[in-house]
From TrEMBL:
Domain of life assignment: Bacteria
Alphabetical keyword list: Membrane, Transmembrane, Transmembrane helix
Name of the molecule in the record: Uncharacterized protein
Transmembrane segments: 12-31, 93-114, 146-163
Length: 174
């Protein structure tokens, strides 16, 4: 009996490889986009004693926790936005537009990739977005961030090479 007949076909391995990349890249983009809406809220709460009861003296403590909301949106982290504002190659209007669009673009591209909507175009858009992020980090001389984005771009290239193995997509030819 030929043992190779019981092994999955190479195309199935390619399909699994593409799905793993698609899942990772899509989740990475969606979660990164959602983090653009994250903020910290500090609340006053009563200090609790060892029995879980409020302190008899009425002592209060400040407790911070993470929340998500439109009020907390920051496409570019404030320290980076300040550095970009000083960069002469980035006009202020372009920086403001990029800041406003970055979070929604990441979420949109990530969701499109997760559902398999036009995977070739979505992956290309994903690569262009990471290339644009790289330009900003190059201008700020943030070599570590550029290297991380380079790895993301390589993963997108790998996904583009494997996209022919995708078996579940909306508008698969695109």
């Amino acid at each position: 009996m030929d043992s190779s007949s019981s092994l999955p076909s190479p195309s199935l391995a390619g399909t699994f490889a593409f799905w793993v990349l698609r899942l990772w890249l899509g989740l990475r983009a969606v979660l990164t986009g959602l983090e653009k809406y994250a903020g910290k809220v500090t609340e006053q709460q009563p200090l609790l004693d060892e029995f879980g009861e409020p302190d008899i003296n009425g002592a209060m403590i400040e407790v911070s926790h993470k929340v998500y909301g439109f009020d907390h949106y920051h496409g570019l982290p404030p320290p980076l936005a300040a550095k970009f504002a000083e960069e002469p190659l980035l006009p202020g209007w372009a920086l403001g537009l990029y800041d406003a669009c970055l979070g929604p673009a990441l979420i949109l591209i990530g969701v499109a990739l997760l559902i398999g909507l036009a995977p070739r175009i979505t992956l290309f858009a994903h690569g262009l977005l990471y290339a644009s992020l790289s330009v900003g980090l190059i201008l700020l001389n943030e070599s570590g961030g550029v290297a991380w984005l380079g790895i993301h771009v390589l993963l997108i290239v790998a996904a583009l090479k494997l996209v022919d193995h995708d078996r579940v997509a909306v508008l698969p030819k695109w």
